[in-house]
Write a structure and sequence with these properties.
The chain is of the alpha+beta class. It folds into two domains: about 160 residues, Aminopeptidase, CATH 3.40.630; about 80 residues, 3-Layer(aba) Sandwich (Glutaredoxin). The protein has six helices and 13 strands. The longest helix has 15 residues. The radius of gyration is 18 Å and the shape is globular.
Length: about 250
């Protein structure tokens, strides 16, 4: 099955789609931002591997030392995203992608592979039960719901930065920390700004635009972290509908 997959490189990235935002016009700005971010990460060992089809089937991972998340650990690979959607489900693609990542980690002499998950399934986070089938275990927790899963080859385990476990900030305003990795984010920011401006809701947007910022966040981050009244609320990407439902604003 491996011949059906391709890895993005600086040579082919401009011609290839990004799976998660293939044809939706409102996300094309985000696609351009994402591709530029990827180009800058390739030399760090960042991997984006996808099915050579027009579909949402891919895995994205990087060395933990250069992964834009507040997680630490020696010689680990961190999985940002593993996504198989629609008619591509049930064909073994997720298994193949994860096994490729694990094999890559072993060949590179890593200590293991880790991924952000949660006690109960949450949108935009990896499914805990799927990873447990391959030997991943909970090695650390943050807040009430979030868990760090790891497959350790030799017993060494990664961990959340202590600052990531705070899950609170001083500001009462709606505050959103956002990364540059997900192509959906620019459109989400546009929707949130428009809604908050129209409804006179104070909003503080904080771009996580460097590795240092990512490692020192006051919460877990999966490209998007929302605080309200000083407390961490969700990792769910926001739009007008979700704002009304979740925050009753």
């Amino acid at each position: 099955m491996s011949e059906q997959f391709i890895n993005l490189t600086n040579e082919n990235i401009d011609q290839e789609h990004l799976c998660c935002a293939i044809s939706d016009k409102k996300h094309q700005t985000g696609v351009a931002v994402k591709k530029q971010w990827l180009k800058e990460r390739m030399t760090e060992g960042h991997v984006f591997r996808k099915l050579d089809e027009k579909g949402k089937v891919f895995i994205e991972y990087a060395p933990l030392e250069t992964a834009w998340v507040p997680i630490h650990g020696d010689q680990y690979l961190y999985i940002y995203c593993l996504w198989v959607a629609g008619s591509f489900k049930g064909k073994g693609y997720a298994k193949s992608l994860l096994e490729y990542c694990i094999k890559d980690a072993k060949e590179k002499g890593k200590e293991g592979v880790c991924v952000l998950s949660s006690k109960k399934k949450k949108p935009f986070l990896s499914d805990k039960k799927f990873f447990q089938k391959y030997g991943f275990e909970v090695v650390d927790t943050a807040g009430n719901d979030y868990e760090l899963l790891a497959l350790s080859f030799h017993g060494i385990k990664p961990y959340f930065a202590e600052n990531a476990k705070i899950m609170k900030i001083d500001s009462e305003e709606m505050t959103i920390y956002y990364g540059l990795q997900c192509p959906y984010i620019p459109n989400c920011i546009e929707q949130v700004q428009e809604y908050c401006n129209q409804n006179h809701i104070p909003l503080n947007l904080i771009a996580v635009d460097s590795l240092e910022k990512a490692k020192n966040l006051p919460c877990i981050l999966n490209n998007w972290a929302v605080f309200y009244q000083g407390t961490y609320v969700t990792n769910h990407l926001l739009n007008e509908t979700y704002l009304k439902k979740k925050f009753q604003l």
